[in-house]
User: What shape does this take?
Amino acid sequence: MFSAISAAVLLYIVSAQSAMGQTVTFAEGVLATGTQGPTNPPAPTMGTAINQTSMSRLLSVNLVDDFCIFAPPSLYNISDSETFEVAWCTQQRNNARLIPDGTLTGVSFLKTDAYVQVYGYGDFTKLNIPFGDWGGSIPTAHSAMETLSEDYNQFCLRVCTAANSTYSAAAMCWHELDEMGCQFVMPGNYNFNGTFETCDAEVAYPPGWYPTATVDGTTQFSTFAQYFTGIGADGVGYTVGTTVTPAAPYMTPSSSNCVTTATVSNGVNIALLGISSTAAAAGSVSGPTASLPAATGVSGSDSSSSSSSSPGSVPNSASSFSPSQVYPIIAFISVLSGAAAVFFFH
Assistant: This one.
C-alpha cells in the first residue's frame, strides 16, 4: 500500500528522506524535475502570511481540507490567463492566496493505488473566474505533466503517485483532453455537492483508454485523441484526433470507506480584515498583460505507470504499481463546470 504522507516538492522529499536515513525509490516519471520558480517558497510551508495579491504558484495536495488549485490573479477568463495563474489554497501555506471560506460547497478526496484525486464544487467567481466562463486549460512549466482546467463552479485535480509498465504517470494524468470535462478525464462519483468527504477508490483507466482485447495475457487498448486542426510552423495544415467522440470513459471507478468532514474552512474572515481577493467589478475581461510572470510548477503529487490487466478489469491492486511513500510532483489539475458537455480540460 502507498503511504500518504504529504504532497511535497522534490527538494522537500529528498531532504526528508535524508533526515530519516531512508531511501525511497520512485518509478520513472513519478517525480518531476522542474524548478519551483522565484515567487514560490523553497518547500511547502504551513502558516505563511495571508497575501491575497501573492504570485506564488506552489501547489500542495494533502487532504480534503488541505489542497491548492490554480486560478487567475485578477479577473480574467481562464482561456486568457493560462500562462500566469496563481496558487489558491484552503489553508495558509506556500505563500499562496487563501481560498475564502464559503467558496467551496462540496469536495471529494479520493485515495487510490495510482493517484490521489480531489474534485469539487463551489463559487469560483471568488477566485477571479468570471461568472459564466466555461474555462480553459492551464499547462504549467513542469518537466513532467501538470495541467489545469477551470470554470466558475466545478474543479477536479488528479495527482499521480505510482507507476508500472503499462500505466505511466503521464498516461494516468494525461492532459490533452481539455474539452471533455472532469467526468470524462477524472471519472468518479460526482453526486456529492454539499458534502466534504475522503474515500478510497478503484483506479480508473488512463483518460481516453479503452481495453479492446487480450493478446498473450496482455491487454490491448484503443485510445481517444481530441480532435483539432491547425497550421504548423512550416505553414502546412495538420489534423489531430478523431471526429468520433466517445460518450463516456470506459468505466467509472467505485469509491468506498468514505468519511465525511463537516466543512472545509480556514477560519479566516478575509472581509473583516479588509482584504479583497477578487476584482472589484465584473464587466469585460481582457487578456494577459506582458508584465505578468509566466507560470511555473507545482508541489503536488504524481506518479507513473506499468503493468497489464485483463479486459474490463482495473489496474487496482497495490502490487501492480511501484511503491511511493510520499505524493510526488506530477499534478493533473482541472476545474470545470458541471453544467456543460464540452468545455475545457486537460
